[in-house]
Amino acid sequence: MKKFFILSAAALTLAISAPANASGGAYCGQASGNWMSIDAVKAKAAGMGYDVRRVKREDGCYEVYAIGKNGGRVEIYMNPVTGKVVKVKNK
What we know:
Layout: H1 2-17, H2 38-47, E1 51-58, E2 61-67, E3 73-78, E4 85-90
Antiparallel strand pairs: 1-2, 2-3, 3-4
């Protein structure tokens, strides 16, 4: 019984510490204290050639909804502290 309890507690800890990531596999994992401003994120994405439509914070990342260089819609996941692109998803 004691072994079962220890294994159950370990499984529960893993389930709590690794929630499903709604941002499609992109993981930034940054606390919101030292994030770039939304205006800075828009400017960085625009500097990369994207026509930014909307920016939101989700799952530790900035999600930038934009029109790409080829005219198609894209969703860009950016590290909120560095502005580094983590993932680009074509829509």
